[in-house]
Each structure stands twice: as C-alpha cells, then as structure tokens.
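Supplementary Methods. Inverse-folding protocol.

Structures were first reduced to a discrete structure-token string of length 401. This string, shown here, constituted the complete conditioning input.
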C-alpha cells in the first residue's frame, strides 16, 4: 500500500487539513429534530408557500400507516407516488420524473429510508429541469433550482435528509446523482417514526450511520465541522445500536440513533473513503441492503487507515470506547475489532465468504472497486495489488493490515 504524500503530510496536523486551515461548509436545510416533530410538517409546507405536493415513498410506508402520519398533517393538496424500491434502479427515477412532471407540483415530500428520500430529492430536481433521469447521473447536472422539498426519514441511518447525493442503480452498478441543489429545504427527523423498524432494518441502517461517521472522519476532506459531527455520531451509534436492535421500543436508543444518523449526514460532506466503494461492488451482485454492504468492509478499512490517520486515531478510539493509550496501528486493530463486534452483535456479516463471494472473484471485485469507485480524498492510495490484498483479508476475516 502506498501512502498519498501530501495527505499523509497533512494527517500529521489537526483535522489533517493543510495549513492555514481552509474549508467551506454548505448546509441550507432547516432541521427540525425530536419526538413529535412530524406534527410540524403542515406548518413547514405553509412556510414554503407551496400549493401542491407530491409525496414520494414506498409501499411499506403506505401499508404500515407511517406515510399517513405525515400526510394527515399536510395543509395543502397532495398525491402519493409509492413505487420506490430498495436500492432504486434508474427506471424508478424515471417513473418519479414522469410522475412529478405530470402535474404542477411545487413541493416534494420524501417519506421513508434513504431510497425514498433519494428519489424525492431527484424528483424535486426533475420538476424544474428537462431531460431523462439517466441524463442527470453524475455531478452537478441540474441547470435550474429544484422545487422545495421536505424530507421525513423513517429509518436511522442514511442521513440522506442532509446530503447532496441520490444513489441509483444503472445496469447493475451503483451510480449517483449529485448536486448541492438537491439539499432539501427542510428535514423533519422524528424518532417516533423509527420505533416500529424491524431489527434487521435497524441493524443495517444503523451500520450505515456508523460507516458514514467513521469514513467521513478518515477522509482527507474532513474539517472541524465534519469531525465534530462524526465523533458525536460514532459515540451515539456505539452506545445505542445494540439497544435499538434488541429493544425497538427503547425511546432513548431510538432518539440517539436518529441523532447519530443525522450527524452522519452532516459529516458526509467530507465524502466517503473506500468502505463505501467496496460496498458498492458487492451490493447489487449479492442483493445486500446498503448498510450491510458498507458495514462489512468497515472494520478492515479502519485497520488499514490507522497509520495514515495516526494523529486522529486516539479520538476515534475514544468515540468507539476503546482505550486510546496504545500506538496508532495497534489502536487501529483494536478499534477495528470493536467495529466488527458491533456488526456481529446486530447480525451483520463480517466476511465476504459469508455473503457468497467466490475466492476466484476477489481480483475482479478489487479491480472494479478501483476503476468504478475511486476515492481521490482517501489518505491511503490503493493499487491493484493492495486492493486485492484487502479483498482477500475481507474474505478470510483477517483484520491484520
Ligand atoms: Fe451509506
């Protein structure tokens, strides 16, 4: 493995940014957090001056009555698009585009997990921009400002209510529609809506939150704002994921997980490192929930990044409730063990072998990871050999970097 010179130099300094410290942070979203905050959705629609809303959600949200908890409070006419699927394909994004353009909607409300919120975010963009859904795949493809949007998460994981990204699957590969214009107008984060999440969904989405916070903290683009959010987010997930998984009606655990996920959304402006890239290479092939696919590599990348991010490891260890008084590499291994324990505690697979990856495919997956999902912000630069070694370690279950 090769260390990236300039970033390696920079990790020796606080926040591993160059000196003088220089960064920008942009988050125009109004946030309303707490039990009962969904009561205020109607006032938010009025505050935005909207007259007709499209609610973007999925069938489960409608069937379980959770979508109705939002729509009952809307003070303006609305219609519901409930055909969002998990890990939505580009065809779903196109259906959303057709729906939002069929009537003069001037507000989009996303209700659900990351997939529904991602589709709601692009719907707001499609409402005011011409072109096929596929033509927006990539970065900064929206010429005009989207119509206003309100996001109401019903899981505690993606932080999508505060991010610029919408993920779509195009011909079997994870791709993204990215634009700062997609940042929602309002995020209403009500932990009450997460109380009935089944344990499996609690586990996967909670691991996603842990990944967002940890990968953002290890990113070369981290800054004091993203680091503060990330460390708080990690501490909240470490303390509460197991409790929320075992006792879904534990209100403090649910509230803490909602807050931890939200912190991940704030931290995500530092971007992800190779954990999410690795996750993308196995998600579609093995039909894994997003939080499972990115949760699996997390312990291994913590172990790998420990030396490159040495000056930051003690704070990371404290957030993971690991004794920080050992040197960076050994500390990385300890934190990695802790992360693996958290994953297996909530029944998330921790090796590639477990999810069905064939030993003979490791090289292909490693090559795809580097070719399709590069991370210029990674403090570690992987070549084909070191990435293949990482995939082998993930297959065998070895945390030894
Ligand atoms: Fe994620």
């Amino acid at each position: 493995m090769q260390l990236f010179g300039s970033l390696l130099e920079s990790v020796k300094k606080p926040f591993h940014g160059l000196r003088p410290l220089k960064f920008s942070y942009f988050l125009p979203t109004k946030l309303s957090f707490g039990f009962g905050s969904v009561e205020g959705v109607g006032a938010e629609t009025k505050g935005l001056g909207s007259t007709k809303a499209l609610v973007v959600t999925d069938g489960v949200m409608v069937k379980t009555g959770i979508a109705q908890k939002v729509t009952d409070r809307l003070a303006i006419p609305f219609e519901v698009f409930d055909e969002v699927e998990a890990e939505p394909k580009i065809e779903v994004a196109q259906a959303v585009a057709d729906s939002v353009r069929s009537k003069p909607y001037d507000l989009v409300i996303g209700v659900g997990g990351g997939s529904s919120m991602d589709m709601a975010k692009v719907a707001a963009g499609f409402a005011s921009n011409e072109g096929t859904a596929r033509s927006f795949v990539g970065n900064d493809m929206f010429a005009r400002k989207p119509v206003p949007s309100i996001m109401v998460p019903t899981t505690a994981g993606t932080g999508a209510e505060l991010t610029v990204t919408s993920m779509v699957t195009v011909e079997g590969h994870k791709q993204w529609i990215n634009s700062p214009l997609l940042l929602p107008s309002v995020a209403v984060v009500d932990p009450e809506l997460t109380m009935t999440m089944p344990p499996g969904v609690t586990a996967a989405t909670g691991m996603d939150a842990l990944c967002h916070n940890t990968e953002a903290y290890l990113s070369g683009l981290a800054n004091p704002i993203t680091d503060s959010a990330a460390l708080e987010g990690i501490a909240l997930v470490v303390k509460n994921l197991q409790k929320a998984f075992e006792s879904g009606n534990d209100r403090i655990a649910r509230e803490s997980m909602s807050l931890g996920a939200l912190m991940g959304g704030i931290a995500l402006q530092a971007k992800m490192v190779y954990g999410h890239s690795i996750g993308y290479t196995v998600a579609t092939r093995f039909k894994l929930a997003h939080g499972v696919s990115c949760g699996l590599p997390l312990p291994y990348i913590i172990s790998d990044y420990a030396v490159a991010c040495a000056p930051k490891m003690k704070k990371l260890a404290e957030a993971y409730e690991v004794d920080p008084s050992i040197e960076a590499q050994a500390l990385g291994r300890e934190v990695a063990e802790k992360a693996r324990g958290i994953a297996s505690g909530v029944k998330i697979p921790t090796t590639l072998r477990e999810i069905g990856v064939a030993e003979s495919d490791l090289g292909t997956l490693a090559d795809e990871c580097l070719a399709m999902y590069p991370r210029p912000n990674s403090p570690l630069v992987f070549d084909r050999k070191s990435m293949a070694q990482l995939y082998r370690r993930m297959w065998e279950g070895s945390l030894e970097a």
